[in-house]
């Protein structure tokens, strides 16, 4: 998935100075941006918070009626220094990349791409797709020791799950209550999809040393007396040992968490780096047709890189 903004800003985030070391309750609503012809709600980064553990980018889209529409159509574009995590609630997406991967995946299946040093990929709804498209696209920042690893693609059709009365949890990445995802991770983190029934309170154990957040993908839930609706995220801080979510109606919630990311990163467009100079170099390589490979199976031009903002970035932090 790409950031298709035509004038993206460079953002510095990371480090421990602004991490909430104790439990907090901060609500963040997504801002609407266009991903090609698909409207999405961008949850991270936002004006109040830029990271949750190593999770550095969250888009929530749908449910959209695409029965008579082409659906998602994102041409080849680059990534570096991150992992993309694709998660569907409804619909299908076909992923193709510059290392030869060509995979269609469906709801409940994990699409996990590690960009490492550099990769290009394209995503679109296949012909004969389902009438609805609904999902979440997330990025995970790679730590410095791993950000130049070889690019790779993983598709996991079966994931571990936990069930209780009126609720069901699928572990997307990391571990929840002894259930561990097969997806590759490079820093301690967790991602899980919690389905909770109307009037049901679901409880999950949490790692005390992680910071956590919950994204409501559908329905309405209450956590610690705070009501949260679709497309909004509730940041929970650190120091919690349990997540208790009450469904006002049937709801789907994404749990995100991880050890606070100690390193400062620079994000611009589809690149995660460590300096403005690295961003400039990555853009130059991609625009010159070197370094990021070619998505051979895609019939059409690649996405052009937007212009860099004037001047170099100014240091920031985890929050703004």
UniProtKB/TrEMBL annotation:
Annotated Pirin N-terminal domain residues: 42-140
Note on cofactor: Binds 1 Fe cation per subunit.
Coiled-coil blocks: none
Cofactor requirements of the protein: Fe cation
Pirin C-terminal domain boundaries: 193-290
Keywords: Iron, Metal-binding
SUPFAM superfamilies named among the record's database cross-references: RmlC-like cupins
Name of one Pfam family that matches: Pirin_C
GO terms of molecular function: metal ion binding
Binding site for Fe cation: 77, 79, 121, 123
UniProt xrefs under CDD domains: cupin_pirin_C
Stated family: Belongs to the pirin family.
Protein name as it appears in the record: Pirin
């Amino acid at each position: 998935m790409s950031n298709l903004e035509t004038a993206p800003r460079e953002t510095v985030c990371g480090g421990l100075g602004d991490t909430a070391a104790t439990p907090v309750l901060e609500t963040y609503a997504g801002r609407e941006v266009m991903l090609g012809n698909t409207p999405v709600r961008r949850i991270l980064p936002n004006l109040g918070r830029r990271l949750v553990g190593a999770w550095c980018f969250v888009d929530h889209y749908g449910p959209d009626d695409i029965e008579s529409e082409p659906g998602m159509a994102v041409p080849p574009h680059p990534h570096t220094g991150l992992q993309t995590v694709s998660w569907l609630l409804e619909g299908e997406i076909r992923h193709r990349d510059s290392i030869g991967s060509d995979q269609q995946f469906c709801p409940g299946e994990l699409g996990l791409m590690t960009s490492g040093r550099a990769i290009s990929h394209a995503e679109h709804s296949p012909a004969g797709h389902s009438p609805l498209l609904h999902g979440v696209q997330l990025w995970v920042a790679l730590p410095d020791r791993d950000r130049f690893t070889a690019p790779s693609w993983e598709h996991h059709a079966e994931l571990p799950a936990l069930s209780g009365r009126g609720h069901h949890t699928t572990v997307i990445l990391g571990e929840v209550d002894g259930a561990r995802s097969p997806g590759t991770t490079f820093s301690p983190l967790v991602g899980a999809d919690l389905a909770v029934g109307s009037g049901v309170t679901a409880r999950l154990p949490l790692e005390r040393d992680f910071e956590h957040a919950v994204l409501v993908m559908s329905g309405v839930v209450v956590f610690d007396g705070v009501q949260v609706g679709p497309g909004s995220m509730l940041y929970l801080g650190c120091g919690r040992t349990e997540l208790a979510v009450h469904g006002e109606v049937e709801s789907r919630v994404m749990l995100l968490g991880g050890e606070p990311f100690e390193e400062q990163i620079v994000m611009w467009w589809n690149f995660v780096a460590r300096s403005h100079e690295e961003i400039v170099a990555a853009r130059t390589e991609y625009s010159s047709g070197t370094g990021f490979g070619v998505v051979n199976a895609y019939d059409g031009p690649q996405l052009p890189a937007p212009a860099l903002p004037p001047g170099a970035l100014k240091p920031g932090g985890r929050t703004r």
